[in-house]
Amino acid sequence: MTTYLVKRLIQGMVVLVLVSTVCFAMFRFTGDPVLMLAGKYATQEEREQVRIAYGLDRPVYVQYATFLKGVMHGNFGKSYVSQIDALDMILERFPATFELAFTALFISFILGVGLGVVVSINPNGFFSRTIMAGSLFGISIPTFLIGILLVMFFSVYLDLLPSFGRGDTVQIGFWRTGLLTVSGLKHILLPALTLSGYQLAVLIRLTRAGMRETLSEEYIKTAWAKGLSPAKVILKHALRNVMIPVVTIAGLSFGELIAFSIVTETIFQWPGMGNLLLTSIFETDQPIIVTYIMLAACIILTINILVDLLYALLNPRIRYE
Amino acid sequence: MKHRTLKTLAVLAAIVLPTSAMAKADLVIATDAPPKSMNPHAYSSDANLSYMSNFFDGLLQRKAPEGKLSPALAVKWQRVDALTWKFELRKGVKYSNGNDFNAADVKFTFERMKNPKYSKLLNIANSIASIETPDDYTVIFKTKKPVPWFAETMHQNFIVDKESSVNRDDGDYNTHPIGTGAYKLVEWVKGSYIRMEANENYWEGAPKYKTVEIRPITEESTRFAALAGKQVDIVNGVPVTLFDRVKSMKHIEVISQAARRAIYMGIGNKPNTPFADIRVRKAIAHAINEKEIIEKIMRGQATMANQIPDVPTVGYDPSIKRYDYDPVLARNLLAEAGYSDGFEITVAGPNDRYINDEKICEAVAKYLAKIGLKVKLDVKPKSIFFDELTGKKHSFYLIGWFDGSFDFGRSAEKLLHTPDKDKGMGTYNGAEYSNPDIDARIIASSSIIDRGEREKALQKINRMSVEDVAWIPLHYQQDIFAVVKGKGIKFTPRSDRWIVVKEIK
Questions:
Q1: For position B23, what pLDDT does the model report?
Q2: Which of A50, A276, A282 sits opposite B120 (nearest CB)?
Q3: Pick from A205, A217, B219, B358: CA 20 to 30 A from residue B397's CA?
Q4: CA-to-CA distance for A143 and A58, rounded, in angstroms?
């Protein structure tokens, strides 16, 4: 087990270094930050001054080496635009994104598993067919469209829920949360629903498939024959066995929800990391972009390792050598 | 056990909730661009300067709507000779931290502005040779070369407090503004909102709205939804595509006014290219159907431009006419120049900078194809396009321009003068248009002190540039604002798009 973990960690480091290399190589094609920084009235000479002040006059590999050296000391550099530490800036936004992703996961998990179970019990009913058709819709429709439709319906026509922002927040230690205020909860509903859309659909289909297979097993038939209540048979005996793949998928995609909530955050002007990333791309603020991508890679790698370990715990037959 | 946890949570929520329920701001404004920094010199973009104008004052200011230069931290100013500018400062002004404002702050500010680490307004700061402060309320600037628009930029060079700025941490300096402005920053949650509070002791009198929130909403449809859902009071950048729908909303007043930004096609006259022949340049100008572009692409929300400077700019000449749409004449001109079979031409431009920029480029390409040219289209994100433009990679491109100084002289230096790195001229003259006569006139105009004479000289340059087809003006963009009705908000948009909250009554 330990050997396996160490191996995975080393693999992870290699991936991170590769990711950073690709990022740096890519920046040669994303435009010159000096143009944006120096402003439109700057002369060629003034641009050069700015270029030197930001160390952009040095060759790319030197810049990359400096960056790597900084990273070893936990220093990801400063944002070109605001001159604030890049990692701090992203971490400041982390709570907002985490809460959004968490709420989205919560919604999709409860609704997905719940609806999946209901659908599997009576697969040919009208309700089940509607749900399944809906889930197909959820998988194929792009996130931004779901978001805009939700905004149009709930904010513009019904005037029920706010269409943008995070609402009132409360500071608890280093964490700034919107989940403890009424306005914060109202604000999170639409973006969380939008973000959960795809995953919700996947979880419904996954739970349904698993349940239908399990429900036809001999031991379930035995359970029915013993005269157990439907709740016990379905929830305790059947659902429990279906949960392993469901939890795996939900866990794996949590990392993605955090790292790639960019579209949703933009539509709802959610003050999270994704929003920051997009703004930074427009501003060619390269330190923020690199740090973000590396952080995203880090989160996804960590969650992957954790899920693999959890897997082993949930199912003792799986062994990592 | 479970009950206890629930109870604790409930008690915790009860304690936390009431304190967090912040009062809604008196005025909520949605804008289309977020602030990048709270350092007033970090950017020369109008989006950022607009935010800063609420926390800081310049020596001078411009008031809505026509943007006339008027006193702010300076009460009087004059151009003593070609190189010398004298400002008399206002007495009794205080910063938001209680410090007094005086001439030492002005000197400190402009010296700090020369440092690329703190400032991107290098252009004006570097033009200063020396700053003298004979007493606490007089400042004398000497410039290295004549800068006729020196005072014209003083509304956007915001003055910072010397005492508290010298030893401040950069991060703090870039996030917590200390200025003499009409508002003080309460909280800036990046990407979300800026909350500010009125400065009751403001030298011009306390502003009407005590607490104000500015919310940058970059996504067009979200901005529209916020407006439709009555979550904001004032919105700038109403998308052209949604204009009719916004106009039909009963609770909203729409204000559409000509913006200062002119959209034009840059074109050069490099020797040994078809463009060297003025008949070819004229043919291209005649081929573009600007009326159709305004009607179909801009949906009427643009004004035809005959020249680059707009009406309030020194150098605007009402007598200038544009080359009319006339494809037959265009073909004849091409044939005369010996290009009856056309030649290859690339239409370049950004696709995320100006309103409908990509569509306008497509239309121009279509018009040029109609007169027999072999057209290629090359539109790309602004961060790459402008890089290529200053690298002189394009010979025919779409670009927009407006000059914060209200003086055509500076624009001409950047856009029209032959590119010259040493003199710092022609930075945005991407197609490398060159006319020695115009160059000489641009240089000569900068030493003219008399405003009337200066205007004449600049008008002449302007006329020559259009006659020689140094560029092809298309249109001035229109700015569209929306204001919620029934709240008694009196909002007059400014032509520079700044939202100066103290001006909202």
A1: 57
A2: A50
A3: B219
A4: 41
Beta strand spans in B425-496 (E)? 471-484
CA separation for the pair A185, A171 (Å, rounded): 15
Residue B92 backbone zone (phi > 0: left; psi -120 to 50: alpha; other: beta): left
pTM: 0.83
Reported as a single tens digit per residue, the pLDDT across B18-76 is 444 455 789 999 998 889 889 999 888 888 999 999 999 999 999 888 788 999 999 99
For A256-294, the DSSP string reads HHHHT-HHHHHHTT--SHHHHHHHHHHTT-HHHHHHHHH
Chain B residues touching A90 at Cβ < 8 A? none
Bridge partner list, B79: B85
Which ipTM value was assigned to this complex? 0.76
Residue range B164-205, pLDDT digits in tens: 999 888 888 988 999 999 999 999 887 788 999 999 999 999
Q: Does A173 touch chain B (CB under 8 A)?
A: no
**What part of A 3-42 touches B (C-beta under 8 Å)?**
29-32, 35-42
In the predicted structure, residue B11 carries a pLDDT above the cut 60: no
Q: Could you read off the pLDDT of A242-283 as tens digits, one per residue?
A: 888 888 888 888 888 887 788 899 889 898 998 888 888 888
Cα separation, A217 vs B141, whole angstroms: 90
Candidates A156, A157, A181, A269, partner chain B, best to mutate (most B CBs within 10 A):
A269
Q: Report pLDDT digits (tens) over B204-258.
A: 999 999 999 999 988 888 888 888 888 899 999 888 888 888 889 889 999 988 8
- Tokens encoding A102: 């968490």
H helices, E strands: number in chain B: 16, 17
Of B361, B364, B375, nearest to B325 by C-alpha is B364
Within 13 Å of residue A92, how many CA atoms lie on the same side as its CB? 16
Between B122, B226, B381, which is nearest A38 by CB?
B122
Query: Using an 8 Å Cβ cutoff, are B250 and B469 in contact?
Result: no
Q: Does A44 reach chain B within 8 Å, measured CB to CB? A: yes
Q: Any CB–CB contact under 8 A between B418 and chain A?
A: no
Query: Which among B39, B122, B191 has CB closest to A42?
Result: B122
Q: Are B81 and B70 in contact (CB under 8 A)?
A: no
Q: State which amino acid sits at residue B66.
A: E
- Here the tokens at position B287 are 């081929």
pLDDT digits (tens, 9 = 90+) for A55-68: 888 888 888 888 88
- Of all residues in chain A, the one with the smallest CA distance to B403 is A41
Which residues in chain B (33-72) have CB-CB distances under 8 A to chain A? 34, 36-37, 39, 42-45
